[in-house]
Amino acid sequence: MAVPKKKTSKTKRDQRKANWKHQAALEAQKALSLGKSILTGRSTFVYPQDEAEDEDE
Fold first, then answer.
1. Of all residues in the chain, what percent carry a pLDDT higher than 70?
2. What's the rounded Cα separation, in Å, for the pair 9 and 26?
3. b/e string for 4-40 if b means 16 or more Cβ within 10 A?
4. Using CA atoms, how far apart are residues 12 and 2, in angstroms rounded to an integer?
5. pLDDT in tens for each of the 57 residues of the chain?
Protein backbone atom coordinates (compact mmCIF):
# COMPACT_ATOMS: atom_id res chain seq x y z
CA MET A 1 0.00 0.00 0.00
CA ALA A 2 1.27 3.47 -0.88
CA VAL A 3 2.39 5.64 1.98
CA PRO A 4 2.41 9.43 1.66
CA LYS A 5 5.75 11.16 1.99
CA LYS A 6 6.51 13.36 4.95
CA LYS A 7 5.54 16.97 4.52
CA THR A 8 8.48 19.30 3.90
CA SER A 9 8.88 21.82 6.69
CA LYS A 10 8.22 25.49 6.08
CA THR A 11 11.81 26.27 6.99
CA LYS A 12 13.20 23.89 4.39
CA ARG A 13 10.75 25.21 1.78
CA ASP A 14 11.71 28.80 2.55
CA GLN A 15 15.43 27.97 2.39
CA ARG A 16 15.03 26.43 -1.06
CA LYS A 17 12.95 29.35 -2.29
CA ALA A 18 15.47 31.87 -0.93
CA ASN A 19 18.32 29.99 -2.60
CA TRP A 20 16.45 29.91 -5.92
CA LYS A 21 15.69 33.63 -5.73
CA HIS A 22 19.30 34.43 -4.82
CA GLN A 23 20.62 32.48 -7.80
CA ALA A 24 18.09 34.17 -10.09
CA ALA A 25 19.11 37.59 -8.77
CA LEU A 26 22.79 36.85 -9.46
CA GLU A 27 22.06 35.73 -13.02
CA ALA A 28 19.91 38.82 -13.61
CA GLN A 29 22.72 41.03 -12.30
CA LYS A 30 25.24 39.35 -14.62
CA ALA A 31 22.93 39.76 -17.62
CA LEU A 32 22.33 43.42 -16.82
CA SER A 33 26.03 44.05 -16.35
CA LEU A 34 26.87 42.37 -19.65
CA GLY A 35 24.17 44.37 -21.43
CA LYS A 36 25.48 47.63 -20.01
CA SER A 37 29.06 46.84 -20.96
CA ILE A 38 28.04 45.95 -24.51
CA LEU A 39 26.11 49.21 -24.86
CA THR A 40 29.03 51.29 -23.58
CA GLY A 41 31.53 49.43 -25.77
CA ARG A 42 33.66 48.25 -22.85
CA SER A 43 32.79 44.61 -23.35
CA THR A 44 35.44 42.00 -24.07
CA PHE A 45 32.74 39.35 -24.37
CA VAL A 46 32.79 37.41 -27.63
CA TYR A 47 29.55 35.81 -28.70
CA PRO A 48 29.96 32.07 -29.27
CA GLN A 49 29.09 31.12 -32.82
CA ASP A 50 28.04 27.71 -34.02
CA GLU A 51 30.15 26.23 -36.78
CA ALA A 52 26.96 25.25 -38.62
CA GLU A 53 25.92 28.90 -38.87
CA ASP A 54 29.31 29.86 -40.30
CA GLU A 55 29.05 27.21 -43.02
CA ASP A 56 25.61 28.41 -44.13
CA GLU A 57 26.79 31.95 -44.78
1. 82
2. 26
3. eeeeeeeeeeeeeeeeeeeeeeeeeeeeeeeeeeeee
4. 24
5. 888 888 889 999 999 999 999 999 999 999 998 888 888 887 777 677 776 655 555
